[in-house]
Amino acid sequence: MRTPILAGNWKMHKTAAEAAALVAESREALLAVDAVDRVFCPPYLAIPKVAELVASTPLGVGAQDLYWEESGAYTGEVAPAMVAEFCDYVIIGHSERREYFGETDETVNKKIVAALKHGIIPIVCVGETLELREAGKTESWVAGQVRAALHGLTAAQVAGLVIAYEPIWAIGTGLAATAEEAERVIGEVVRATVSELYGDATAAAVRIQYGGSVKPDNALELMGKPNIDGALIGGASLKAADFVAIVQATAKAKGLV
User: Fold this and answer.
1) What range does the domain containing 191 cover?
2) N or C end: fewer C-beta atoms under 10 angstroms in the chain?
3) Model's pTM, two decimal places?
4) CATH number for the domain including 42?
């Protein structure tokens, strides 16, 4: 069975002091649910403090992005080795990075390769806009993003990373895909594309999250689906009680408690 993974993407929220308070508020309750992987993804400047607070615990830390070059004159960017010093994971290709900061399928792939080189587990985001969905292009678009992201990777590398299916129309809108629709796209598109590229064993090993307005009140139903291996959580991860509730619901849905 794949170990579920819940990652809180804090986006551009929380100073280092506020991040410390949030971790302190949720840490003990999260440590009690040890059957799933639990990851905090704070802004860069809060990462060292969060890493310090969860050191020697099973709780993970992730960055929200990185750059693919090792070092150099890239003002404002953060190199893979800098991320690896503190983080186990890194979110790559989030729709907000693609929309606001010019991220492309090519740069997503470069960042994945760079992260893997430094032993960081990528959380690779894919997902369609409302316009693409209404035009009936969800399947072709999402499959294309998966193929582009994984270009040049080995089966072992793919089996060890995480893919997050985040329909863009559901991010921060309060609209979530139904559990049935999320399961369909994750199973019949994302996992099926991995199977097509790397075979059934790799497709069965890779963990695929759902993201997009995941909340305590819909987590149990979403996480109860066999192909959904956890969630990439936005707004709800900024509230300790909500993040803990989603983690607990996931463990319950998977029969791990």
Assistant:
1) 5-253
2) N
3) 0.97
4) 3.20.20.70
